[in-house]
Design brief:
The chain is an alpha+beta fold. The chain is built from 4 helices and 6 strands; from the N terminus they run E-H-E-E-E-H-E-H-E-H. It has a 6-stranded mixed sheet. This is EVE domain-containing protein.
Length: 137
């Protein structure tokens, strides 16, 4: 089991609605995620913080199998992703506020290196993983 940090752009996708209104949320796979891994969803501007912790409950789903469920949260029309999807179940919601302990600023002070442009396996940054996990308690 691994832990991943995945960025999400709220200008393109209604992240909050997608992860709070549905029991399961389809998300494009952009890394070597496996069943039972955990995904931390980092919301970009205006949130600039980790918003949700999700468990991977299915992988390798073809886009056409999940697009109907996902498209109601898409804010910008475009082409359908051609990569497989995973199905995520939200297991924890972080409080959303400007002084969040899982904000970009606080994560930079606790092991985050660089910007969050793509998925990261947090087992490659144990300081940051330990810090984020401590904020769930």
């Amino acid at each position: 089991m691994k832990h991943w940090l995945y960025p999400a752009n709220p200008k393109i996708y209604d992240i909050v609605s997608a992860f709070t209104r549905a029991d399961e949320t389809p998300w494009p796979m952009s890394s070597k995620v496996e069943l039972d891994d955990f995904i931390y969803i980092y919301g970009g501007q205006p949130y600039k913080q980790v918003l949700f912790k999700c468990k991977v409950i299915d992988i390798g789903l073809p886009p056409e199998a999940v697009i109907e469920k996902a498209e109601k949260y898409i804010k910008v029309s475009g082409k359908t992703p051609d990569k497989p999807f995973m199905m995520l179940k939200t297991v924890y919601e972080f409080e959303m506020n400007s002084s969040s302990p899982v904000s970009f600023h606080m994560m930079k002070q606790n092991g985050l290196k660089g910007s969050i442009m793509g998925p990261r396996c947090l087992e490659n940054n144990l300081e940051l993983l330990k810090y984020i996990r401590s904020m769930e308690e």
